[in-house]
Amino acid sequence: MSEIQLEIDGKEVSAAEGMTILEAAQHVGLYIPTLCHHEKLEPYGGCRVCIVEVEERGWKKLVVSCVYPVQNDIIVRTRSEKVDRIRKTIIELLMAHAPDSPQLVEMAKEYGAVRDRFEKDPSFCIHCGLCVRYCAEVAKKNAIGFVDRGINKEISFIPEIAAKECNDCKECFPLCPTSYLQACYVLTQGLAFPSPSVEPTSEE
Amino acid sequence: MENDRIDQIIDKHHGEASSLLQILLDIQSENSWLPKEALGRVSQKLDVPLTRIQHIATFYKAFSLVPKGRHEVHICMGTACHVRGATRILDTVEEATGLKPGETDLDLKFSLETVNCLGCCALGPVINVDGKVHGKMSPVKTAEALKTYE
Ligand code: SF4
Ligand code: FES
Ligand code: FES
Questions:
Q1: A142: nearest CB among B49, B58, B59
Q2: Which residue range is the domain that position A185 belongs to?
Q3: Do the strands A154-157 and A144-147 form a parallel or antiparallel pair, or are they unpaired?
Q4: Which of A80, A111, A142 is the last residue of a domain?
Q5: Which residues of chain B lie closer than 8 angstroms to A156, CB-CB?
Q6: Which CATH number characterizes residue A27's domain?
Q7: pTM reported for the whole predicted model
Q8: Which ipTM was obtained for this model?
Q9: What pLDDT digit, counting tens, does each position of B76-104 carry?
Q10: Which pairing describes strands A51-56 and A75-77: parallel, antiparallel, or unpaired?
Q11: Is residue A134 in some structural domain?
């Protein structure tokens, strides 16, 4: 694998081909805020807070650093007037859904985001996909997935699988930035888990 | 829907996970909706997680996860039909069937949906029942047409 040379926040950085900007930055101890990124999971690019500015041969553009591969001779700025402004808006949009998420509250302080800028749509889930992806990629249980699309997209447990697997796992719970996952689990447990007497035994 | 029939459909597509969408479409068109058991069967046979299948089945409007009526009524609400009185046609159908768009009656006779342009604007207002297009509809004609379905 060839080495790639780039500049991040004024620092010369070398990275392996195929790395993302986020990985290259983390590698040399530079911080980029993230929400949906998890080192054990495939890059996803769902929350957009890791947005950075990339300058390539004089052209500037905004990219999502957790999915954007490193390139030779690009100049990356993890903070600039523009990046900060856009990141602030992204945080504000996410806060319309989950105003009390600890991570969001923390980021809001840093970027001066106003919690109530946008009308509240308390869906709580911000579609980071951490629970869904962790369950599929790491736990390999596929007990939870997304349903529907766009503004109606939601997480949904498969009750039969969840009833069997989740109680002993719950590894995704601490990943959720909003606690909606726990709430959804409790609701599913209360409303949809198969009662023990009629639980199908042939399923595997 | 019988498991055997589902297996036949899956075999027709060589049991390949990449044909998932086509398999679901086949089941949908034959059965008019996707029962949970059918999705479970597909998941098992193709070795695709049920969560994935559920995501796809809820993503596309072509799929229904609830039973559909024997007759599927689609009312065009597109611009051309709208200006020619689609709202009144919809009112008529709602009145006659007691359904709102997206609903199916308990006897499973009609399912009602609205669509946005069926592509034959010159015939507006248009309704489509079980694939058959009825053009230049009036409330009276619509009520008459519905009576012909059992
Ligand atoms: S429930 Fe939580 S972890 Fe799962 S997608 Fe929503 S915000 Fe992310
Ligand atoms: S961390 Fe990059 S989009 Fe969420
Ligand atoms: S608007 Fe109804 S067919 Fe085009």
A1: B49
A2: 130-192
A3: antiparallel
A4: A111
A5: 51, 54
A6: 3.10.20.740
A7: 0.86
A8: 0.83
A9: 999 999 999 999 999 999 999 999 999 99
A10: antiparallel
A11: yes
